[in-house]
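User: Hi! I'm working on a homework problem where we have to compare a predicted structure to a textbook description. Could you give me the structure for the chain below?
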Amino acid sequence: MTDKEIIEAEEKRKAEFKGKNVVFMDHPLIQHKISILRNETTGTNEFRKLVEEIARLEGYEALRDLPLEYEETKTPITTTLTPYIAGKKLCLVPILRAGLGMVEGLLSLCPTAKVGFIGMYRDEETKIPHEYYCKIPSPIEQRTIVCLDPMLATGGSACDAIEDIKKRGGKKIKFLCIIAAPEGLRKVTKEHPDVTFYVGHLDEKLNDAAYIVPGLGDAGDRIYGTK
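Assistant: Happy to help. Predicted structure tokens:
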């Protein structure tokens, strides 16, 4: 395929989600770093750093609507009113284990953010996700919650994690992923239309093993050097 044909195919996939709460992160830096992630020769250390860097870049965009309030600040010259982030602190919720690789990228932007955890594993035969752990800071009703998972494949883990957060009182939820499959994005936007999804790249499809194509393999294994 030519460059033009590749771009046209990508835009056609994205068009399905026009009008839904999906933000595609088309920044050249993000796209470049994702390409390096995909390369099977990229080692664990570099892979881990890239995931953190991409999360930081996505987080910058995802947090642009955080509310501000003005407080008095004394500078070396005078006293003035300056803006600070208002309300309860941000809450990050990575889906274990791959989501952990994105946490530091967001914490570098908001060091005071609270961090919760949702642990899930996928049954390799049924492809159904199963939760084994959930610990979320409370109260979360007034917090902006950012759920993190590098890969949005079938959408099952994402839907279950978001549902858990909602059951615990979460209302303003954002979901950050690096790569998504159309099948998974279709599922999550249908089941959770009130959640905004930030996607680094929308890939072609899922294969028979429910892995994203072309994807980048198992993100958790590549972050932590396991198989």
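For your comparison, note the following. Residues 118 and 134 are 4 Å apart (CA to CA). The chain has one domain: 16-224. Good luck with the assignment!
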